Amino acid sequence: MRYIIAIIQPDRLDEVLRILEEKEIHLVTVTNVLGRGRQKGISEVYRGHKEGGRLLKKIKLEIAVNEEFVQATVDAIIQGARTNHIGDGKIFVLDLKECLRIRTGETGKIAIG
Fold this sequence. Notes:
Layout: E1 2-8, H1 13-22, E2 29-35, E3 44-46, E4 49-51, E5 56-65, H2 70-81, E6 89-95, H3 109-112
Antiparallel strand pairs: 1-5, 1-6, 2-5, 3-4
Helix pairs in contact: 1-2
């Protein structure tokens, strides 16, 4: 089991979700977040002074998948989120030790769905 976290541009969310749906990956948590990467946000000149360090709006996707869906999930996110510009985002793939479905008490691969 793996836990995939992706940070993407807000305008790419619909495309990423569409491709995930095509690959039969349905269980996704989406959160609006603020952050900055290597570009350190947006620099603006305000009253003659350069102001940096602004946080940019991003989307955070969290997806728990069984091993056989890891590559399809990563590929879908890349395909839907890539614009070839700075700020396209990041994908983190973590080991998932356990998953429990609250309603039924199921655990492990079965609980992910």
